[in-house]
Write a structure and sequence with these properties.
344 residues; alpha/beta; Rossmann fold; 2 domains; seven-stranded parallel β-sheet; 13 strands; elongated
Length: 344
C-alpha cells in the first residue's frame, strides 16, 4: 500500500499539488497549519511558527502522525519551518523524504538573517530528494548546501483553458497586491503607454487583492487613469482565464520569483508576457521573441510588447507550455520520482 504524508501550509498551491499526485497513492494525509474550508483531505493541524515551544510540540505531533500513519513517502513543501520541524521529527526513521522548495524560502529567506540561512541549509542537506520549479532555483539550492541527490526540476503544471473570445486592447495584471510584486510600477508604465494618443481605447485590468490595493487605486487616480484602470478584485479560475484570453498583454514584474504559474497560464492563453528580469523568467521568455524581459522599470516596457510578432510569440508559448507546463507533463515527472524512490 502506497501512503503519502504531505507536510505543507494551507494554501492553494498545496491542494493543487495534492490533486496532481493523489491518484498514485492509496492513502494521503496532510499535516498543515490550518484545515482548508474548501478542500476535503484527511488533515492534522499543527503550528509551524518558528517558536521554541514548537520545536517540542510540533515535532512531537509530527512524530506521532508518522508512527500512526506509517507513510511510504514523506513529502514536505517549503524549505522553511515546515521542513525544519518535519525533518527533526523524522531523524530516527528510514522513510524517504522529498522536499519541494517554493522560491522565497530559498531565494529570500537565507538573506534575512544567519539563523534562517542555517535552517534552510539544514533542510536542504537532510532531505533525501529535492525538487525545484526552475533550474535557477535548483542552482541556488546547490550553492547553499551539499545535497544527497540531483534536484528534480518540475512545477505543478497548469490546466488553463483559453476562452473562445477575440483579443481586446487590454493589459492584464493579476499578481498579489504586495510590495514584492511592484504593481505600482505597472500602473506607472501604463500611464507612459497611454501617452500615445492612438491608445485611447486601451485599458489596464488589475485582478487580485492585498495590503497595497488602496494605495494602487490612489496611484491610478493621481495619474489620471481612473477610467482606464479597472480593479476586478479576487476572481475565480474561469474569470482569470477569460481575462488572459482577452488581454493582448500580461504584465508581472516582481522583485523575486521562481517559476510563476501565472506566467504559464498567460502563455497558454495567448497573452504576450512582460516580465521582470529574473533567471526563472528567462528560462521561459526570450526577450523580443516570445515576450519582453523588463530591464528598466522606468522605461515604456508595455509598449515594447507591441513590437513583437504577435502570432509567432503566441505559437512559441503554446508549444512550450504543451512540452513543460501542463499538469500531465509535470505529474509524470513527480510520479517517476516516487516510483524510483519506492523501488529502492
Amino acid at each position: 500500500m502506497r501512503k503519502l504524508l504531505l507536510i505543507s501550509s494551507n494554501t492553494i498551491h498545496t491542494y493543487k499539488y495534492l490533486q496532481l499526485v493523489e491518484d498514485y497513492f492509496d492513502e494521503v494525509l496532510l499535516i498543515t497549519n490550518e484545515k482548508s474550508t474548501i478542500y476535503d483531505y484527511p488533515t492534522v493541524e499543527l503550528s509551524f511558527n518558528l517558536k521554541i515551544k514548537n520545536v517540542f510540540s510540533t515535532v512531537r505531533g509530527i512524530k506521532n502522525q508518522i508512527t500512526s500513519f506509517q507513510p511510504s513517502i514523506i513529502h514536505i513543501h517549503q524549505a522553511n519551518s515546515y521542513a525544519f520541524f518535519a525533518l527533526l521529527a523524522s531523524r530516527k526513521n528510514s522513510i524517504p523524504i522529498v522536499l519541494t522548495a517554493w522560491g522565497s524560502d530559498v531565494l529570500l529567506l537565507p538573506k534575512s538573517n544567519v539563523l534562517l540561512k542555517k535552517i534552510v541549509q539544514y533542510n536542504l542537506r537532510n532531505a533525501d530528494f529535492l525538487t525545484s520549479d526552475s533550474t535557477y532555483m535548483a542552482q541556488e539550492m546547490e550553492k547553499l548546501a551539499t545535497l544527497k541527490n540531483k534536484i528534480l526540476v518540475a512545477n505543478f503544471g497548469i490546466d488553463a483553458t483559453p476562452a473562445n473570445c477575440p483579443k481586446e486592447n487590454i493589459v492584464y495584471s493579476n499578481r498579489l497586491h504586495k510590495k514584492l510584486y511592484r504593481v505600482d510600477k505597472i500602473i506607472e508604465a501604463f500611464a507612459r503607454f497611454k501617452q500615445n494618443k492612438e491608445r485611447k481605447d486601451w485599458r489596464l485590468v488589475v485582478a487580485a487583492t492585498g495590503t497595497e490595493t488602496e494605495n494602487l487605486k490612489d496611484k491610478a487616480n493621481k495619474l489620471g487613469l481612473t477610467d482606464d484602470v479597472e480593479f476586478v478584485g479576487w476572481i475565480q479560475k474561469e474569470d482569470n482565464e477569460q481575462w488572459y484570453s482577452k488581454a493582448k498583454i500580461w504584465v508581472s514584474i516582481p522583485e523575486s520569483d521562481a517559476t510563476s504559474i501565472s506566467l504559464l497560464e498567460a502563455m497558454a492563453c495567448g497573452s504576450i508576457p512582460v516580465v521582470s528580469d529574473l533567471p526563472s523568467n528567462r528560462e521561459w521568455i526570450e526577450s523580443g521573441i516570445n515576450g519582453i524581459v523588463v530591464e528598466d522599470l522606468d522605461s515604456d516596457f508595455i509598449s515594447e510588447a507591441l513590437t513583437l510578432n504577435q502570432s509567432n510569440a503566441i505559437e512559441i508559448n503554446k508549444k512550450r507550455i504543451e512540452q513543460d507546463g501542463t499538469k500531465d507533463s509535470n505529474r509524470a515527472k513527480f510520479l517517476q520520482l516516487y516510483q524510483s524512490i519506492l523501488k529502492k
